[in-house]
Design a protein that fits this description.
This protein has 153 residues and is of the alpha/beta class. It has a domain of 87 residues: Nucleotidyltransferase, domain 5 (2-Layer Sandwich), CATH 3.30.420. The protein contains three helices and four strands; from the N terminus they run αββαβαβ. The chain has a four-stranded mixed sheet, covered by helices on one side. A hairpin with a 5-residue loop joins strand 1 and strand 2. Helix 2 runs parallel beside helix 3. It is elongated and about 110 Å long.
Length: 153
């Protein structure tokens, strides 16, 4: 009888490290950081500085529209300089009325070949939501850029 002998090969120990568990841990940490990162900056107090700035140069092809927000959250518009009372709206408006008025002003300026620069003058006691509402209304009216007017320190 012939014995069949198998050649036994001894397996050498593998010197490589199994990295799959480490990758799993890293992915869990990545997810945790991605979830918590947006929450980190919500509780930060911000003390905005007062800014001194120079007046912007005027262009003959540009009309300036200033939206004023009073403390009682009423809106006013002024086309031109603050001294120019002919083009000033003295009637208090709501946000939808202001949006409609700005849309008409911008259309008229565009038809006349003028570019409209829009600035917001908000009372110090007006809440952030009112200013953001005005900016949203201006965006609906087709305004791309809005400047904020501040006082010098």
């Amino acid at each position: 009888m012939a014995l069949i002998t198998r050649a036994r090969h001894k397996r050498k120990p593998v010197a490589e490290m199994n990295v799959v568990p480490y990758i799993d841990v890293m992915l869990v940490l990545l997810v945790i950081f991605m979830v918590t990162a947006p929450m980190l900056n919500q509780g930060v107090k911000v003390d905005l500085p007062k800014v001194s700035s120079e007046a912007l140069p005027q262009d003959n092809n540009t009309q300036v529209l200033t939206i004023s927000i009073k403390a009682d959250k009423t809106y006013y518009w002024n086309l031109g300089s603050e001294v120019d009372t002919e083009k000033q709206q003295d009637r208090a408006m709501t946000l939808p009325q202001m949006t409609d008025a700005v849309t008409k002003i911008i259309r008229a300026g565009t038809e006349g070949g003028k570019r409209t620069q829009v600035f917001i003058r908000g009372d110090k006691s007006v809440d952030y939501g009112s200013v953001m509402g005005a900016m949203g209304g201006l965006q609906k009216a087709g305004v791309g850029n809005v400047g904020l007017i501040t006082e010098a320190p």
